[in-house]
Amino acid sequence: MFTLDNAKAWMQEYSRIVGENKEYLTELDSPIGDADHGTNMARGMAAAVEPEALDQPDLGALFKKVGMTLVSKVGGTSGPLYGTFFMRAGKEAGASTEIEDAAFGAVLRAGLQGVIERGKAELEDKTMVDALTPALDAFDAAVGGGLAGAAAAAAEAAEKGADATVDMLAKKGRASYLGERSIGHRDPGATSSQYLLQALAAVIK
Ligand code: ADP
Ligand code: MG
User: Fold this and answer.
1) DSSP string of the chain?
2) Ligand 1 near 174 CB (within 6 A)
3) Separation between Cα atoms, residue 65 and residue 55, nearest integer Å
4) Which atom of ligand 1 lies at the shortest distance from residue 74's CA?
5) Is the per-residue pLDDT at 75 higher than 90?
6) What is the arithmetic mean of pLDDT over 31-53?
7) Which end of the chain is least crowded, N or C, by CB within 10 Å?
8) Predicted local confidence at residue 159, as pLDDT
């Protein structure tokens, strides 16, 4: 079961990891972007885990609140995309305080689907989709063995996916303006998405 308490702990851990890696994310966003991804995400997640924001009655309300907070506080391209991820996840989760493991996989998948619909990125466009897609595939493949194993598998796949963005040519967002010169740099958004799954694995043991 994935519970409301799990979700709150997940968001707090994600905020902690993003805060801890704020400079690194911004450093990644320097050669292929405008050097704001770390500060944007840290600001957004800090607001999302304010006690009054976290104080929600069910999973749907919590994820929708996180999504709306990210839209209003993160800005840039990634704010609306992460915002969409959580708002769609919230819609899928509905007014429940706990859901079955596989159903939580569907909640994550609904979030990713929202990112794809909104951002129109395909695999290997060098975006957050390149970390999220293999992560959720790994989650679904492992979820029969329980939530902890699925979260660990997702975190591992997300890291590999983010690593793989180094060699990709960016086709979406600011990095795409660089064309061939985007190759050789790790995508900041794929890296913050890797952290999202790492945070999940850290709180689901
Ligand atoms: P901005 O580029 O507006 O400064 P950020 O720096 O916060 O926004 O985020 C950049 C990240 O957003 C990129 O590293 C990439 O992963 C992600 N991104 C950009 N465009 C898209 C898109 N169309 N679909 C999915 N992700 C995208
Ligand atoms: Mg940027």
Assistant:
1) -EEHHHHHHHHHHHHHHHHHTHHHHHHHTTTTS-S-HHHHHHHHHHHHTSHHHH--SSHHHHHHHHHHHHHHHT-TTHHHHHHHHHHHHHHHH-S-SEE-HHHHHHHHHHHHHHHHHHH---TTSSSTHHHHHHHHHHHHHHGGG-HHHHHHHHHHHHHHHHHHGGGPPP-SSGGGGGGGGGTTS--HHHHHHHHHHHHHHHH--
2) yes
3) 10
4) 7
5) no
6) 97
7) C
8) 98
pLDDT exceeds cutoff 90 at 198: yes
CA 119–ligand 2 middle distance (angstroms)? 15
The verdict on the CB of residue 125 being under 6 Å from ligand 1 is: no
**Does any ligand 1 atom lie closer than 6 A to the CB of residue 83?**
no
Instruction: Measure the CA dihedral 162/164/165/167, to 10°.
Output: 160
pLDDT digits over 98-128, tens only?
A: 999 999 999 999 999 999 999 999 999 999 9
Q: How far is the CA of 69 from the centre of ligand 2 (A)?
A: 18
Backbone angles phi, psi at 127, to 5 degrees: -140, -175
| Mean pLDDT over the full length of the chain | 97
Angstrom distances, CA of residue 51 to CA of 8, 11, 54, 65: 10, 12, 5, 12
- The class level of CATH for 2-203 reads mainly alpha
